[in-house]
Write a structure and sequence with these properties.
By secondary structure, the chain is of the alpha+beta class. The protein has helices at residues 2-18, 30-33, 36-62, 75-85, 93-108, 113-135, 145-151, 153-172, 180-203, 211-220, 224-239, 249-258, 261-280, 297-334, 344-356, 376-383, 385-401, 426-441, 471-491; strands at residues 363-373, 408-413, 416-422, 445-447, 450-452, 456-466, 497-500, 507-509. It is elongated.
């Protein structure tokens, strides 16, 4: 890696010496890019964009019939989606890198240098115009970057494809026999259809942190929408005619309300690409023997497929927005806004989920722990509610630091917290309780340079039962008993852990 860095820095120094990078006389290279790390990042990211553009360009050129535009030109839509999806790559100089790569790919596959230079300006026009519209800020809108781009895919793609087509038709007309109008229509339909098909896929790729949630959603849904889609496409081939293009639409709409946006986008892309390919090789016939239309079959298919793809994508985007809104509302209802712990309602929702997921179908055992902050009212009266809030936040942080991530922590109200633990022995539960008590005791809160000692009293009740029907009853009983042990700890001087023994006759103190 060090050798690679030295190579990049050597190249950069050469560029400075040749005047390709402007630098003050005798100024260190760090003054050009602030530091070596920034320079290395620029070179590496530019290399990624260069290689990606080259690969996609060669793919698009391989789909280009002789003396015609590509059946698909996925370069523009994929690169634009990549820039929006990964903002660290979204830099103005990357458009120049893309342009160089496109020209290089065209030139190395037999196109003349002049033609390559002129035609690929159209691709950059599409990228610049569509990106500007996708990310343009409108007063009153508060959507995140990716969701905002998804909502504007249709108008932005339309405008970007139109601007690209104007330039592309103007510069390509001298090189072929088509009229300007024919070239304009061909450029527009190709760019518009590939943008509508590819952009949503790129923009809806799940984030790494959401992969597990995404997989769970997929597993919970059935395969009937996918099966109906598999039947619709062969049916379109058998029936033929212009109406056959929309045969998959009902199945895609079903997929849109069933599967996540990324899955729907991928299915729409696959169906649209398949139909365009089938039309291009005359397997799917959408025009009769007598042609009354100005557009050829492929151009007409591109427009029809783009129009068809909009409907399931709009439904899927609306569905995604609704799910996110419901998730935020659920977050507010199920989680305490201050501490981030579960509310009572959120606790029982989580317990119901554990029961439904068959996690606790058999015999279960564990413990319920009630934690009460000692002298919390005095802290509020002496230091104010802002300090009291900080105490609550710190207490929760210390509690969670002593627990596994799957253990449930709930704020019961005020300064009381509940911990529900499964698959734990009585000794293990008491050990954790004492660890929490000790951690809080030795971690005073700093209040404007003054050390504020905070302690807690903890009551522990062991629980056990069989089947989900007993879960709520067992938990409620455990809360009552743990609460009684908290009062017992308070009577014994606070800052201690109390529980009943297995027979319920003797107290256990640590």
């Amino acid at each position: 890696m060090r050798a690679l860095k030295r190579s990049y820095l050597h190249i950069a120094n050469k560029l400075v010496s040749l005047g390709m990078i402007v630098s003050e006389p005798d100024a260190p290279l760090a003054t050009v890019f602030n530091n070596r790390q920034k320079l290395l990042s620029v070179v590496l990211k530019s290399s990624v964009i260069l290689l990606l553009t080259l690969l996609l360009s060669y793919l698009g050129i391989s789909l280009r019939p002789f003396d015609a535009l590509s059946i698909f030109w996925p370069v523009n839509a994929i690169l634009l989606g990549f820039l929006i999806r990964y903002p660290s790559y979204d830099k103005s100089y990357q458009f120049f890198v893309m342009y160089l790569a496109m020209v290089l790919a065209d030139y190395t596959t037999g196109n003349s240098i002049n033609n390559a230079i002129n035609i690929n300006v159209a691709n950059i026009i599409y990228l610049v115009v569509t990106r500007a519209l996708l990310l343009m800020r409108v007063p009153g809108e508060s959507h995140r970057r990716t969701l905002q781009a998804l909502i504007r895919v249709f108008p932005a793609s339309f405008a970007g494809a139109a601007c690209c087509a104007l330039w592309g038709a103007a510069v390509s007309t001298p090189y072929n026999e088509d009229s300007f109008l024919a070239g304009l229509i061909s450029w527009f339909t190709e760019q518009f259809s590939t943008s509508i098909l590819f952009l949503p896929v790129m923009l809806s790729i799940p984030k790494r942190k959401n992969i597990d949630e995404f997989n769970q959603i997929i597993r919970r849904n059935n395969l009937f929408p996918l099966l109906s889609l598999a039947i619709a496409l062969p049916s379109a081939i058998m029936v033929g005619g212009g109406g056959s293009l929309i045969f998959p639409l009902p199945a895609l709409m079903w997929c849109a309300i069933t599967y996540p946006l990324f899955v729907t986008s991928c299915l729409t892309l696959m169906v649209g690409a398949a139909e365009i390919m089938l039309v291009s090789v005359n397997i799917l016939h959408i025009q009769g023997a007598v042609v009354f239309t100005v557009l050829d079959s492929l151009t007409s298919a591109r427009l029809g497929i783009a129009a068809m793809a909009i409907s399931p994508l709009i439904v899927a985007i609306s569905q995604t927005s609704t799910v996110k809104l419901l998730s935020r509302l659920t977050q507010r209802a199920d989680f305490d806004y201050l501490t981030g712990t579960l509310t009572r309602g959120g606790l029982y929702e989580r317990l119901n989920y554990l029961s439904d997921a068959k996690t606790l179908k058999g015999y279960f055992r564990g413990a319920v722990m009630m934690i009460d902050i000692d002298n919390f009212k005095k802290i509020n009266d002496a230091y104010g509610h802002s300090v009291g809030d900080q105490v609550l936040i710190n207490i929760v942080a210390h509690i969670k630091s002593c627990l596994r991530s799957d253990i449930l922590v709930c704020r019961m109200g005020g300064e009381e917290f509940l911990v529900v633990m499964f698959d734990l022995s009585p000794l293990g539960a008491l050990t954790i309780a004492e660890r929490i008590r000790h951690t809080i005791e030795v971690s005073p809160l700093d209040i404007h340079g003054e050390s504020l000692d905070v302690t807690v009293s903890i009551g522990v009740e062991f629980i056990g039962g069989k089947g989900e029907s007993a879960l709520a009853e067992v938990i409620n009983h455990g809360i009552e008993q743990a609460d009684m042990q908290v009062y017992r700890a308070k009577r014994q001087g606070k800052n201690c852990v109390c529980s009943r023994d297995s027979a319920g006759a003797l107290g256990y103190e640590i």
